[in-house]
Amino acid sequence: MIDWSVLWQPPNGRNLLEALLLTFQIAAISWVMSMALGIGIGLMRAAPIAVLRFIGTVYVEIFRNIPLLVQLFFVYFIFPRILPVFARQVLFNYGWEVAASIITLSLYSSAKIAELVKSGFNTIGPGLHMAAASSGLTWWQSQRHIFLNLLLRTITPGLASEFVTIFKGSSLAMAVGVAETTYVTRQLGTETFQWLPVNVYASAVYLLCAWIIAAAMLLVEKRIAVPGRIGG
Questions:
Q1: Is residue 85 in a domain?
Q2: Which listed residue, 24, 38, 118, 175, has the most CB atoms within 10 A of its CB?
């Protein structure tokens, strides 16, 4: 018999709520970190210095093309092995599972955001570049004071889509024992054998949250859109 009450019976309801909050925390922190990394790497890929362009290209090719789960296993299992025993113990004593998940999502998503940044540069006409150069600004100054603001407004739709992708990708954290939504619902299904309610709940949570995030980012996109560009 299907028993939907397993979703709110103590302590299941509290556990599911805490798992959902942890999912949001992982996604939000990963998105902020991937934004910072992605913008930096994207600027490196468009920089006039060949070494910086090479480093940025290598970064993107590595983290964009290796599957996310493989990267998660590498960060969680392999990286601590190169550290001293004391440092390794500190990592695992203070929540390395969550930290490894955030780091992996940030690296993976930052590579894709870097590609968005690079493609965004292509939408900015050469006239604006020449105008910035004629005003006496260096390349880095023109990026900071002129192009970065316009660029971020132009690629807002891609950044919104990436936020949704990060939120859904956080479910892979269960592979290293993070008690997020997917992990907790799987545990609850194993304990109660009520697979239909818990899977419907998990699916509904990810679907509704993805819709909410997309709707919120759409409002932001409309507010800051640049007329005549992709953001519009």
A1: yes
A2: 38
